Amino acid sequence: MGTVDGHDGAALDGDRWRDAGDRIETLLESSSVGGAAARERAEQLVREVADLYGAGLERIVGMLDDAAIERLAGDDLIASLLLVHGLHPHDVTTRVRAALDSVRPYLGSHGGDVELRGIEDGVVRLEFAGSCRSCPSSAVTLELAVEDAVRAAAPEITAIEVVAAEPASGSKVIAAESLFSRVHAQQQGSWIAVPELDEIGPGEVGGFAVAGVAVLACRVGDELFVYRDRCAACGDSMAGAALHRRLGFPVGDAVLRCPSCGAHFDAVHAGARVDGDGHLEPLPVLVRSGELSVAIPAEVAG
After folding, report:
1. Domain named Rieske: which ranges (predicted)?
2. Whole-model pTM?
3. pLDDT reading at 80 higher than 90
């Protein structure tokens, strides 16, 4: 199994610039020790430097064609700088829609989807659809994926709200207002870069240790799915599991068989058990800053 700590190379660089705002605020707070005047001077210094770099960035953007600007906007760090200085080529609605498109494959693995219902006064209104709304364990990881993607694309938004969808007859659905509160009531998890996931080919299964958590990853066609490495039936590791297609099912069907107890889980649809109750614990996997990354919820890592 590979070991990934999320603290080397590109992952470290990504963590550094994402935390830059917190570091700047900490430095400004320390300036307050010298009194109000000292803090004002520090804030003015930050503004002057930001304005200088902003003016230079505006000139650079003015020299580029649309294709080059689009490439710049595709980089998380550069996109954030373009947003700060009002130079991003896309409005907030376009950016939020693109963010939702980026997580749809993951939502689809839960048999669900998400739609943008509007953005007003900085509040993004979303509606979840499909079976993902009725799965409590999926709700936490879905929130991690959706909120992280939306806030990265549109940092200027102030809140994300989930509007209620009509439940199917007889179904048990998570209340819309509680979907996002499930994670907010506990510590947020962390996105960890796992470049080794790129090495998994179609039909292959691999085990990794991510931030001290054992995970199982598999690729079905072009799609990558990641689960916590723990059988929902017997509690043992799924190490050694292989992908199988069920007899009579179409191409694209894929189940994981627990080597210990023989329980079968649908690898494509949230790890649902196909020969009993329960399901594997899915973990979001997205491309962040150009690298495949896995979200490890705090209660799992802890």
Report:
1. 192-294
2. 0.56
3. no
CB of 65 within 8 A of CB of 96? Answer: no
Q: Give CA–CA dist 34/43, Å, rounded.
A: 13
Question: Do 295 and 228 form a contact (C-beta atoms < 8 A)?
Answer: no
Of residues 142, 168, 157, 161, the one with CA closest to residue 286: 142
* Total residues found in the chain within this entry: 302
- Confidence band for 1, pLDDT divided at 50, 70 and 90: very low
Contact 298, 158 (CB under 8 A): no
CATH of domain 191-301: 2.102.10.10
Strands (E), the chain: 2-4, 112-120, 123-130, 159-162, 190-193, 205-210, 213-220, 223-228, 243-244, 255-257, 264-266, 282-283, 285-288, 291-296
Phi, psi of 141 (to 5 degrees): -70, -30
Gap between the Cα atoms of 100 and 117, Å rounded: 12
Query: Residue 137 pLDDT more than 50?
Result: no
Q: Per-residue pLDDT tens for 267-277?
A: 888 788 999 88
Is a pLDDT exceeding 90 seen at residue 84? Answer: no
Question: 204-254, pLDDT tens digit by residue?
Answer: 999 999 888 899 999 988 888 899 999 999 999 999 999 988 888 887 788
For the chain, helix, strand, coil in percent to 5 are: 40, 25, 35
Q: Which fold has domain 92-185?
A: GMP Synthetase; Chain A, domain 3 (3.30.300)
Copy the structure tokens of residue 47: 């503004």
